[in-house]
Amino acid sequence: MRTYVPTNARSSQYFRAAQQRLDRRAAGRPRRAAGLLGILLGLSVLASGCLADPQRQQLGRLLGELQQDREALGQTPPHITSTCDQVADVKSRLAGEPGLGTIQPAWSELRASTDALQAVCGQAILLAAPAGDSAATVTARARWQAGLARELDVACQHLRRAASSLDQGPPC
Asked: Angle of helix 106-128 relative to helix 135-165, nearest 10 degrees?
């Protein structure tokens, strides 16, 4: 700050008035800055509370993928190769992506549905293999077909519970 030495009485009055104005301005700035900082901090907290949770969004996308996979495996004949690869991909993403396991019970239900859909994949692969007409083969194929239908129902139940915990509509 500059130092001013008044040369007469009038100059000294002007100097004191100017100095008082500068002092008032300087004293008001920290309060305004603190007030502005408080407002910005409050708005950022408010905005972050309104943002969607990225882990919940990711689980919602995985739920959608598993719904499509379940529908594809429920068709006759089931689309085995690409669908089973997608189910395995979802299962590894559920296990490997950080933070997804903290969203309970959706994560547990999606994980259980991938287990059921992978069982469907195994039984569909067995049913797609050429087989003979022996009594044991016919009995085994009937069990695999019943197991396939049962595991599709189990997967549907898990997907419904996961959708419910993610506040989405029933998938199947």
From this structure: 160
Cα gap 115→167, rounded to integer Å: 22
**How far is Cα 120 from Cα 78, in angstroms, rounded to an integer?**
10
pTM of the full structure: 0.68
Contact 111, 91 (CB under 8 A): yes
Burial of 55 (0-12, 13-18, 19+ CB in 10 A): middle
Residues found in the chain: 172
Name residues of the chain where pLDDT drops below 70.
1-15, 22, 24-52
| Contact (CB, 8 A) for 107 and 166 | no
